[in-house]
Amino acid sequence: MVIDVRADDRIEAADAEAFAVTAEVCARLGWEFWRAGEIDPVLGANVRWLARYRHPRCAGRAEVTRRLREAFAGSAPLLAGAAEAGDPLATLPAQNGLGSACYGPYVPSAAIPITSTGIW
After folding, report:
1. pLDDT tens-digit profile of 49-107?
2. Quick one: DSSP state of residue 116?
3. Are 113 and 47 in contact (CB under 8 A)?
4. Contacts 24+ apart (CB under 8 A), 87-93
């Protein structure tokens, strides 16, 4: 599945044409194309945060991965879910960009939505 997330008021004629072509290519490949429009701001923030786990330095923490997947299996605020999975310092990646270590698990790229402008 390919998902494009763009606000309805930001779609111009050329964008609509690109979406139609993308949908056709996806259909030929047996994929589904879905344009989501605007998403909930909390969900967007959570997905951006989780996207940081894709970095290879985050691999190898299977137990933390399992707990995070359980905590976020439904809808949950980021910090509450991280706390449910354990110590947030151990379950969340560095958020300020100053740290080089990643304390969380690796989330497969399939869990991260693809937008028309790249990986979210």
Report:
1. 887 777 766 665 778 888 888 988 888 888 888 899 888 877 876 544 433 344 444 34
2. T
3. yes
4. 90/64, 91/64, 91/67, 92/49, 93/49, 93/52, 93/53, 93/55, 93/58
